[in-house]
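anyone seen this seq b4? input:
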Amino acid sequence: MAPVPVIGTTALVIALPAAEPLLAAARDVSPELVRPGLVAQVTALYPFLPAAELTADVEQAVLELAATTPVTEVALTELVGSPGFLAAAAPALQPLADAACARWPHVPPYGGRFGPRPRAHLTVAMGANEDELARAAVLARARLPLTARADALHLVVLTGDGWRLRLAFPFAQP
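predicted toks r here
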């Protein structure tokens, strides 16, 4: 089981609002399967640095990372999963996730639970039992393929009220 994040936990994410239908599929099965407070998104690095360590230098480094990333059309065509978990693979965002991990090598993605280079993905459902997972997969698969535009890297922080946007860093325009 994944550790529960504490207040002050941060993450670097890429919002993909056009992929909300995939989360809606999981919510149709059970609202508890979808994390509250964030739109459909692909994680570049979680957990990131604690909120207390977010200095101007760190923010500048995130800005530079985003500025070297082109605006990207993300094709979501494949569902992947494991017990209790369903996601849509997002290979177009793997280079950004890899670059974030390389820039902050002392911050292992997902605390190291999935190795040094986890597959970029959009989480559809978490904490599902086998039946819920199967139903969510059927509903989500019916909404694929989806294409979503990735145009910014978001720094989010967990507060007492849920995940909140701290800063958004735009990607390079074509």
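The beta strands are 10-15, 41-45, 72-76, 79-82, 85-89, 121-126, 146-150, 152-159, 162-170. The chain is about 25% helix and 30% strand. kinda curious what u guys think
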